[in-house]
């Protein structure tokens, strides 16, 4: 009789018994879009932390031919790094589906260096920014070691720009509010 009562409570209230959507493994690697890799650590059944990083480097070489066959070559190098932390707060488990809230903060820094721009010398620019967002997400377990997730919400971004060449410089600040969405894959250890 006690077994039937416990089973009835488990079926009627997700919070009473562990659900199948709750991961049996505590740590996994995440890969997502927008591009980024991270670690997912289930601190408790109701809270997970997901630190992530993004690192990109790009180079562009441009040759411009002018009047009289004179050509100018410009080289540009871009570096961007971003580090963020999300807290995944479980709202509900339904079979293999987990619904959660995901507040997130991130710091980003970008540097651009341009050489040979029309005789002006090197042009340097730096961008620093802070991102705060809140999203509603779902994670679906494809098996014991693999899950997919999707999130959508709002995001606040504040960036500061500085650029200069020679003795000239400029500064600007950007504040932006918009929509944030993400999809990804988790592989558990």
Notes on the protein architecture:
- The chain has 189 residues and is mainly beta.
- The chain has one domain: outer membrane protein from Thermus thermophilus HB27 (Porin), CATH 2.40.160.70.
- 6% of the residues lie in helices and 72% in strands.
- It has one helix and eight strands.
- The protein has one helix at 2-12; strands at 27-33, 36-42, 47-65, 71-94, 97-115, 123-141, 146-165, 168-188.
- Strands 1-2-3-4-5-6-7-8 form an eight-stranded antiparallel barrel.
- It is elongated.
- 16% of the residues are buried.
Q: Which structural category fits the helices and strands? A: mainly beta
Distance between the termini: 39 Å
Q: Helix tally?
A: 1
Give the biggest sheet. Answer: 8 strands, antiparallel, barrel
Low-confidence stretches: 1-21
The strands making up the biggest β-sheet line up spatially as: 1-2-3-4-5-6-7-8
- CATH class, anyone? Mainly Beta
Along the chain, the helix and strand elements come as HEEEEEEEE
**CATH superfamily (homologous) name:** outer membrane protein from Thermus thermophilus HB27
Mean pLDDT, nearest integer? 84
| Named CATH topology | Porin
The shape, in one word, is elongated
How large a portion of the residues is in β-strands, by DSSP E?
over 45%
Q: Got a strand count?
A: 8
Number of domains: 1
CATH architect. name: Beta Barrel
Tell me roughly what share of residues is in helical segments.
under 10%
**Overall radius of gyration:** 24 Å
